Structures are given as structure tokens and as C-alpha cells.
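Intended use. Records such as the 1-acyl-sn-glycerol-3-phosphate acyltransferase entry shown here are meant for training and evaluating sequence-to-structure methods. They are not intended to support clinical decisions.
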Amino acid sequence: MYYFCANALKIILSMFGRIKVYQKENTNVPGGFVLACTHTGWVDILWLGVSMLPVKIHYMAKKELFQSRFLKWFMEQLHAFPVDRKNPGPSAIKIPRKLLKAGKVVGVFPSGTRTSEEVPLKRGAVTMAGYAKVPIVPVAYQGPNNLKDLFKRVKPRIIFGEPIFLPEELPLKQGMEVMMEQLELSLHDLQKQLQAFE
């Protein structure tokens, strides 16, 4: 189901303009890792999934998307798992940690909401990566954010940054603080790089 949907989306999205993908070699990481991507609209979720094929992404999604029986089934087929964004408890990290330990890729949007502005990042991506002891691959996206942008044929671009590893020489909490700082800097730099390609 995942590959069917992803390949169908690839065909549909490509009708509005092919995506340019930069530095995908940075995703050649052994084992599981966290993909931390900028988030400006629902289209970036689709293009991120397509750009990572044949690798599957397990997305963290808000629990509201799992309330109806059909949507719950559909989200599960796409390897998404629910999280309560208002009250994230210890269980919020349980599923992604298990996936990461099994060598899977978990997709997170650390801004926590769709925005074109720079906002303080939420700590979910770093918390997952830190406790699972896996790297974070930062990703920046620029392009269409909605149907209107798609029909205007706004060109999509995505760039993958260098993996950010947990510093083994530091205690876990300090190491995660370092990862957080590096993630913020990396996402900022990647967005600037994409703007330079215009």
C-alpha cells in the first residue's frame, strides 16, 4: 500500500513540475535515523516521502488524523503513527524509538506546525534521536504548499543536510542540547542554500 500510494503521488505531483533533490547522499546512513524537515504546507510531506523512495518514512502525525476508522486504517497503511501534540507523554517517544532501533526512518517536522517563518523548534526530533542513539538528517523544502501553488507550477526543491550525531563524549542531556543547536543551524543554512538556487 505504501509503495502504491507513494508512486501514484510521484506521478501526480510530477504533472505539476518535477522536484529537484540536492545532496540525497546524506541519507546514506547505516541503520535508522530521524528526518527533520521544515514544514510550510501539506505538499512538503508528500514530496519528502517521494524523494526518499524506495526508503519508507514512518511519519509522526497528530492524533486527530486517527479518529475515524477509515483515516486510522489509511494512516497506518502509510506507516504513520499518532501523537498528542498538546500533551505528549512518555508514550510519544515509545513508538519512534522502537522503529529507529529496528533501523527504520522516522519523519518529523520540528517546527510543529506549518509556517514560512522561523519559529523555535520543538524537541521531539532530538529527543527521539538522542534516546535511540541514532543521527538526525536535517531537510529543507521550498516549493508549492497547497493546491493553488501546484496549479501555479511553483518549482519544488528539497535539500538534505549532513547527519547530526549524538556526541558520545557528553552526558545524554548535554549531547541532546548540542544536537538541538546543530539542527537549528543546519535547517537555517539549508534554507539559505535553497534560496541561492533560485
